[in-house]
Amino acid sequence: MAQQILTLEQFISLNQPTFPGGVGALTGLLSQIGLIGKFLAHDLRRAGLLDILGTTGETNVQGEAVKKLDEIANETFVRVLQQSGLICALASEEMEKPIILSRDGAQGSYMVLFDPLDGSSNTDVNMPLGSIFSIVRNQRPDQPLSERDLVRKGTEQVVAGYLLFGASTMLVYTVGQGVHGFTLEPGIGEYLLSHKAITMPARGKVYAANEGNYQKWPGGTQKYFDYLKVKDKATGRPYSGRYSGCLVADVHRMLLGGGIYLYPGELDKPEGKLRLLYEANPLAWVVEQAGGRASTGTLRILDVEAKQLHQRVPLIIGSADDVLEAESFIQGRRM
Ligand code: AHG
Ligand code: MN
Ligand code: MN
After folding, report:
1. Where along the chain do the CATH 3.30.540.10 domains lie?
2. Could you tell me which residues are beta bridge partners of residue 135?
3. Checking DSSP bridges between strand 87-92 and strand 99-100, what pairing results, if any?
């Protein structure tokens, strides 16, 4: 028998998740994110044609074509979320300062932090891209908001997830009751439930990292990578290397099939490259909700103290046993 067809909205209402603010608010928030995904998928499908067709019709005085896609993606997020009535503040990788919405109009109680386009170097070569979002609640609705109010620990997230623009467009999210994945059916413009209650294997056979950085890594990290390549049938080594340059796509692979993604700290840059609030935290929560693990190498990502909006953090994320093993090398407990 054919499987039941459920749209994103139907799934939320049927499952009645316990969500602070109610099912209506969650449906509203995820519908807005879904709408952003439709706009971006539409833009990205034409990415290779931008030079020929132009994008939004905007050209500067020199007649130069248009904006970069990460700026377009950022504007799409801001425009859609600003008018949703659910949001009071927005922060993005592409904006140095957050946008605090005026208290006059209808203002919601949620704050969205996002990476509007993840893996942007893939844009020009027709490879996968993503968007990542993390939603927290305004703790002080009766007081004026400031940047500080958005800088919150990963455990305080109320919704987190990502959009993946691959061969198809997907929306994957968690509210702390498992992880669910929806695929956009472009013909009808609806996200349909395609991956219910995703659980990841405790161990995988795949690793993803930019190994060009090997010489920059501390000894423990190097040893872990050396270990992954040793032939050993019993532990399934050597692992296969699969790195797309898009964190969302690589983590999505691990979420469905198991494995480990690493962007570790470097000797001269111990904080690593990725951003805590809108890259590491949301993906960490998604992966934990699917039974995986996310760590800096020494600390659970969701427990990292958030100090700055654009704070960086090392990220080791994926199947629980693989991440535990990486930690033991990084911490020098295994050599
Ligand atoms: P972004 O496009 O948002 O700047 O993120 C890129 C991130 C991530 O998606 C990817 O895994 C990693 O940076 C790639 O970095 P390297 O080019 O250093 O491998
Ligand atoms: Mn990114
Ligand atoms: Mn980005």
Report:
1. 8-195
2. 112, 159
3. antiparallel
